[in-house]
Specification:
metal-binding, single chain, iron, Cyt_c-like_dom_sf, Immunoglobulin-like, 142 residues
């Protein structure tokens, strides 16, 4: 195997740092965007994203829904919740705003009688936490 001349080796070595620097910058930017998204979602809902994630797991929402960020959430009996923050409606009938979303999460049968989504006895704060998590689910760039 031929060795690179020392000047080319040095340029290649520096190029590696450029790639690493770009990768590090990308990771930092993604974390900042995620933090901003969570802060915004929490301000909208008066909920806590992390508690919402735990509630979604505990309530086994993944049994019916595909939910980005939730391990094993590949349910197909109900709509995917991917890109939820950008949706115009909740359950196809309510405007997608925090009040309507909390109402839907708490009382889906009163919003759409006969819906496959059952009333699960979710309280107000837990519904706000779930809403906060859902509002972090923005569409992925294509």
């Amino acid at each position: 195997m031929r060795r690179l001349p020392s000047s080319l080796w040095f340029v290649t070595w520096l190029g590696g740092f450029g790639v690493l620097g770009s990768l590090a910058s990308f990771v930092v930017q993604q974390r900042q965007e995620t933090a901003q998204q969570e802060t915004h979602a929490q301000a909208l809902t008066d909920g806590v994203v992390e508690r919402g994630e735990r509630a979604i797991i505990a309530r086994q929402c993944n049994a019916c829904h595909e939910i980005p960020g939730i391990a094993g959430a590949r349910g197909a009996a109900a709509p995917s919740l991917g890109g939820f923050a950008a949706r115009k409606t909740v359950a196809g009938v309510l405007r997608n705003d925090p009040v309507a979303l909390v109402r839907w999460v708490r009382f889906p049968q009163s919003v759409v009688p006969g819906s496959a989504m059952p009333n699960m006895g979710i309280g107000d704060q837990e519904a706000r936490d779930i809403a906060a998590y859902l509002y972090t689910l923005s569409p992925r760039p294509t």
